[in-house]
Predict the 3D structure of the following.
Amino acid sequence: MKLADVLDQNQYRLVQGTLDTEISAGVTADTRNVERGSLFVAVAGHRRDGHTMLHEAFEKGAVAALVTDPESAAPAGMTVVEVPDTLAAVSFTAARLQGEPGRSMKVVSITGTNGKTSIAAILESILGHLSPAPVGVIGTGGPRIDQTPLPLKVSTPTTPLANELQAILRAMADRHTETVVMEASSLALVEHRVDHAFTDIGVFTNLSHDHLDDHGSMEAYRQAKMLLFSGLSGQAVANADDPVTAEIHTLMPGRVTTFGIEQDADYRAVDVRVSTAGTAFTLLHQGQRHEAGFPVPGLFAASNALAAIVVCRLLGYELEDVLPALKAVGQIPGRMQTLSLADGTTVVVDYAHSPDSLEKVLDTLRGLTANGRLITVFGCGGDRDPAKRAPMGAIAGRLSDHVVITSDNPRIEDPESILDAIEAGLGPTGTSYDRITDRREAIARALSVARPGDTVLIAGKGSEDHQIIGDRKIPFQDIAVVRQLAEIVTH
């Protein structure tokens, strides 16, 4: 495709070269991925500025470059075009070079602090029951079609970089995928990764303390989430129990369908009953009452189920078909994933890694552990928002009978300093606790002190299959460690 066609209908200025330059190998902002015929986009990264790498990109085969600084030194044989925002340019050029695949599918993008992965998995299961057409998922568990992983490069978790995302969407469209369910992280929205995914339905789950290391303040974090509803989505599905939804109504008047438990909503769950078998509730919609159930316990689980129900309705499915499919959803890996041990202990593995999510999970398990103790194993990520560590320690201490604090991807930060910060919140609660840096040893300790009837929550990593220590990714999965250490009765 000629560069003129790639840039068509977007603002740009030719600095040198010709717009007839043929782009034959895709777009990238990483010189390591440049191929002969590539379009290189100069993005100012955390460590290096792409504007200083134009010669390197050219030597590796890039035939053109997009820049924001027209004075950047570029080789004479390279076509250079100035654009207002190179991050945004990666998105629209990648989409154009892939033939804008999002247009041919129904795209559902989910944003919010908690619930993205769970709602995506619920939708994947329900739609798999209701339609013979392939269902695509893009998120924390990696891209997949009908639960089969796509062997495509993803260099960042949750929401891939724009060029990777467009390649995934292209692969899904080529396999006749009808609906794509995508997690849209706040950072991805700020970096324009989903700008040209052509989202039909944007879903908002909730907003609570998290990712302040990326955004600096809760206000900036909120604004990042709202980008999905500022021209990127055709319709919105929003949580009426979160005050942020009022802003979504303002941004998308007449195009918002709400769900909720505490507040009145288009789809509301009342008479919520939580048990070890899951969550049952009465769904109120347009004056009608429908009995519904979902095999995951907790008010938050009911909220996630409601969001999935509304999306399915907007996709054209009837409640009498959706609700039975909801009951048939299986356990979601790393999301309230439950194992029953031979000694009578229940182990729950969950991704809860923010103060709000940890509190909700512990509240739920506290209510389900009437005849036993609740033991919590958790840590906090290194090089990530340190302000949440003490609050999470306080929450764990207040709601648990015993706590084991440990490592959770310490990265290049000193693991002991992370535990010090957690301990500052945990200690004053008076709850007994162990401090064990090695996560495997911490899990083993929790299992060893547990008695029949106790529940052990292992929080923070969910289905992650590695531990990041220093600059190394070491294979590690909480659920696998539990299975290695204990005799399992049921899943």
